[in-house]
Amino acid sequence: MAEQGVFQDKAVVVTGGTGSLGQALVRRILTGEEGRPHKVIVLSRDEAKQHEMRNWYLNLRSSTDEVLYHNFANTLELRIGDVRCFDDVCSVLRGAEIVLHAAALKQVPTCEYFPSQAVATNCLGAENIVRAIRDHGYPVETVVGVSTDKACKPVNVMGMTKAIQERIFIAANVLVPETRFTCVRYGNVLSSRGSVVPLFESQIEAGGPVTITDPRMTRFLLTLEEAVDVVFESIRASRRGETLVPIVRSARVLDIARAMLDGRDDIELVEVGTRPGEKVHEILVSEEECRHVERRGAHYVILPLVPELRDATRLDPVLEQEYSSADSPLSFEDTLRLLRENGLVPDPGPSRGGLAGSASEQPSGRLSS
Fold first, then answer.
1. Who has the most CB within 10 Å: 55, 74, 185, 353?
2. Best CA proximity match to 250, nearest among 274, 230, 293, 280
3. What is the pTM of this model?
4. Which of 14, 70, 23, 16 is nearest to 44 (CA)?
5. In the chain, what are the domains?
6. E-assigned strands of the chain?
7. Which distant-in-sequence residues (6+ apart) come within 8 Å of 248 by Cβ?
8. Spatial CA neighbour of 34 closest among 64, 9, 66, 57
């Protein structure tokens, strides 16, 4: 455990803290790996998820048992509220030093049918954070906005609103210079709510069919722990206005489905066509952004486009073309290995021998339309 770290003695707010990423952020913060926080406040509007989260921590039998007994008196505090509500945001940011903004409407089809709702959460929610800090002079040191590959060359409402959210936070560095605003941008998180893996799991459990939107489709993939690592790295090292992008693997969605079928031939794969607003391939860095990208270790860094935030001594760009999930997707074998390593496909038993060969050679999962 680190003696000192970015969270040491800090008051940390996690918006959307009961979501998949939010809960992973809270759990990792409370381990103390980046220092012991003074307070971790979860802001979310789902009382059922808060109740489940509270019970999970109360039932722990470990060194973190003390984090939650009386809600307002201990390290972890759960607050019902909505980032859309300026008063709720002001209440939770009062005294905060680090803000991790994970609250979002993220389902692509839902945002297509209810675009004004996506604007209210993804855009106005971010603006409420900036406005609260600016208008009330709250002593917030760092804000990290969690974005998505869909914000890059967006074609759907979810991506468009997330792209605006990125710009709101980047521009805030000029409007609120006392606070550092950064963003992180990444692709699909394995097993997060609403992602493709839980969908396939539920379809397989129901006996099928497993639905494939387009057999050419690829997606960037990272684990929840890797997603948390990106956020932590942004807090540690990002400069004002930068967007941190992890260099991660991608995979064909068809390979994911076939791997999860785990050799079963009694479940049909059906092609159903793309959903409203859905891309065939995702992009993490656009061709236009390539001129403003540096590489730092395992990440690309998109430098701010706002001239007041540019570093005149920056390095030459490292990307000559957009960073797409279609560039070099994993083989079927590597996709299967990734899912097995994360407990999403069982390891083969001694009598089964597992799956072998490429996706096109699998006896299961014949695709029909």
1. 185
2. 280
3. 0.89
4. 16
5. 81-368 (3.40.50.720)
6. 11-15, 39-44, 76-80, 98-101, 142-148, 180-186, 188-189, 210-212, 218-222, 243-246, 250-252, 269-271, 283-285, 293-296, 299-302, 323-324, 367-368
7. 186, 187, 220, 221, 222, 226
8. 9
Contacts of 55 (CB under 8 A, 6+ apart): none
DSSP annotation string for 335-346 = HHHHHHHTTSSP
Structure tokens at 91: 């209440």
The CA–CA distances, whole Å, from 119 to 102, 149, 292 equal: 15, 17, 27
Residues 217, 89: Cα–Cα separation, whole Å: 38
Beta-bridge partner residues of 39: 11
pLDDT, tens digit, for every residue of 294-345? 999 999 999 998 989 987 665 677 898 999 999 999 999 999 999 999 988 8
Write the pLDDT tens digit of every residue in 277-295.
889 999 999 999 998 999 9
Element (H, E) at 38: none
Residues tagged active-site: 150
Tell me phi and psi for residue 362, to 5 degrees: -70, 135
Q: Provide mean pLDDT across the span 241-251.
A: 97
Place of tokens 């959210």: 165
Are 76 and 18 a contacting pair, CB within 8 Å? no
CA nearest 89: which of 72, 106, 101, 107?
101
Cβ–Cβ < 8 Å for 181, 242: no
| Nearest residue to 270 via CA among 140, 365, 143 | 365
In 3D space, the residue among 302, 297, 289 whose CA is nearest the CA of residue 169 turns out to be 302
